[in-house]
Amino acid sequence: MTAIRTSPTRLILLLGFLALGSLATRAEEAPAQDDRLKEAIAGDHRSEENRARDIYRHPYETLTFFGIRPDMTVVEIYPGRGWYSEILAPYLKSSGTFYAAQRPSDPSYAPGQRSLEAFNQKVKDAPELYGEVKRTTLTKDGDIAPAGSADLVVTFRNLHSFMGSGTENEAFATMFKALKPGGVLGVVQHRGDPKVEQDPKGGSGYVNEDYVIALAKKAGFELAEKSEINANPKDTKDYAKGVWTLPPSLRLGDEDRDKYVAIGESDRMTLKFVKPAS
């Protein structure tokens, strides 16, 4: 058999072509940067207090993991005072549609009512920034958006609230109904210790990951992907005041404050579910 000889020059050229091909492949695989989303996150309309939480909440990484695009129809569940909405609404203003699915108004629940009023005032005061925010209400029987219209539904640290009111199954069913076939449900939630039995009322604020996945699958969703974007291994999840012991709530006040500030915000699961196409 005759050995095939390759000259050093040809070998160098061949290796160069292979390297270029590898770089091109990696460039194709790398996700495109979303400058519009970065601008919304960096905007000076966001308070220093809200921006300070980016190191824990990772808005850019979280939203890109969920596959957000500026031309989507997006629903945010229980936006509270609008921490995420002040990113989502400007981002979607020109090309997309943004629904804020709020808690029902309840004057007897002062914290929720204050958040609702603060959110509505925020949107009212800056229409040029937020555009048309479509406000709906998440109830057992209502729609958070027209059925089959949403590309993406996101819910941030709300599942324990659904569990506390016994409406977790209805909430997942409502989110499923709003999504298009192939649409995405993005979930971020305080993650419980899997060795601890799940409190069905979610009293500590922590929910076990398997429990969340089971709820979503029961509603018809398929788990597409998990991420550790919002993980915090310092969180021991065994506090007297539950997750609210940690920042930003710091329910114990000055008691061991430095300790809890050093831990940071809670350990969180980040789950991407898909509504089956058929």
From TrEMBL:
Residues 1-27 form the signal peptide. Keywords: Methyltransferase, Signal, Transferase. InterPro entries: S-AdoMet-dep_MeTrfase_Alr7345, SAM-dependent_MTases_sf. The keyword Methyltransferase applies. One of its GO terms (molecular function) is methyltransferase activity. GO terms for biological process: methylation. SUPFAM superfamilies: S-adenosyl-L-methionine-dependent methyltransferases. This is Methyltransferase. It comes from Methyloceanibacter marginalis.
